[in-house]
Amino acid sequence: MKDIRKRIRCNKLWNNVFLIVGLLSTFVGLVLLFALMADLFIDGFPRLSYKFFTSFPSRFPDEAGILSAWVGSFLVLLVTAFAAIPLGIAAGIYLEEYAKKNWITDIIEINIANLAGVPSIVYGLLALGIFVYLFKFGESILTGGLALALLILPMVIMATREAIRAIPNSIREASYALGATKWQTVQHHIIPYSTGGILTGVIIGLSRAIGETAPIITVGALTFIAFLPSSPISSVFPFINFKWLSDPFTVMPIQMFNWVSRPQHGFQLNAAAAGIVLMLMTLIMNGLAIYIRYRFRKKIKW
Fold first, then answer.
1. Which residues are registered as beta bridge partners of 240?
2. Which residue in 77, 205, 236, 262 is deepest, having the highest Cβ count within 10 Å?
3. What is the dihedral of CA 93, 297, 293, 86, to 10 degrees?
4. pLDDT digits (tens, 9 = 90+) for 197-212
5. Rounded distance, CA 262 to CA 52, Å?
6. Cis peptide before 119 (omega within 30 of 0)
């Protein structure tokens, strides 16, 4: 009896020690993050203005802006979304609902999990060899978007599969019992119930893509660009212009890197301001993911 009580006290002691260590680790991480964010805001917030968002880069710090960078980021992210989301969701649904469970699918699953952890520069080199040299897309928005699509594709596939796995088998069995086909079950039950988790993974993947630099530099993004890509909207029928896909571009992380590498203190402040914008864009996207997940889970009744 004494040994049992002694063991219980020992377990409680270690439990409290682990709790204290975990709280201290979390506190230290939050303090460091808050300190970095506070320093970033102190340096960059005075630079945020309408002119900063609507001006092109310049060799004068006070006149430089992020117009070409944030427009380029938006267009590259648009290509990334159109390339990675449909392909990733379709692959996730196939692997989870249709593919036979054998050694081939096991190898595919292992490789997808490994690809999610591959350094981003590897995807840049892959995109350089395929899209620039093989398909001759050049150093364009299309190449940059496809490079980032390769980067987040494993994340989208894994998020889709995890969202589908969370659906109870009783829903599938009930659908089959009523005479529904495999596709009808997937279309009317699996996809609606898993939409929240899928969209969460998609937005988190896009929020990672917006801050990546290595793949974009590898495929030839410019460090200084004082013009905008062609407009996607045309004034003549069919009112859509695809010329912007072949235009050169830059993105926010590269613009920040260009400013940080300059010796003038004014450019350091510009980089801090651009960092605030990029961080707010990432926080908004992650907050949107949390909100979407909450709304979909609230609507679903098991």
1. 233
2. 205
3. 20
4. 888 888 888 888 888 8
5. 18
6. no
**Tens of pLDDT, residues 25-82:** 888 888 888 888 888 888 888 888 888 888 888 888 888 888 888 888 888 988 999 9
Distance CA 266, CA 146 (A): 34
Q: Cβ(173)–Cβ(140) under 8 Å?
A: no
Residues 6+ apart with CB under 8 A from 276: 40, 41, 44, 45, 48
- The helix or strand, by DSSP H or E, that contains position 133, with its residue range, turns out to be none
> To the nearest 10°, the Cα dihedral for 278, 279, 284, 285?
70
Distance CA 149, CA 128 (A): 13
Reading the block at residue 142, the tokens are 């299309």
Phi-psi domain of 141 (left: phi exceeds 0; alpha: psi -120 through 50; beta: other): alpha
* Residue tagged 């529904």 (tokens): 180
Measured in whole angstroms, how far is the alpha carbon of residue 126 from the centre of its chain? 19
CA distances from 126 to 73, 120, 213, 246 (A): 21, 10, 15, 19
DSSP 219: T
Contact 248, 140 (CB under 8 A): yes
Tokens for 217?
Answer: 């530099």
Residue 232 gets which letter from DSSP? S
| φ/ψ of residue 166, rounded to 5 | -75, -10
The answer for residues whose C-beta is within 8 angstroms of residue 30's C-beta and 6 or more apart is none
Structure tokens at 216: 């974009």
Neighbours of 7 (CB within 10 A): 10
Question: Counting every residue, how long is the chain?
Answer: 302
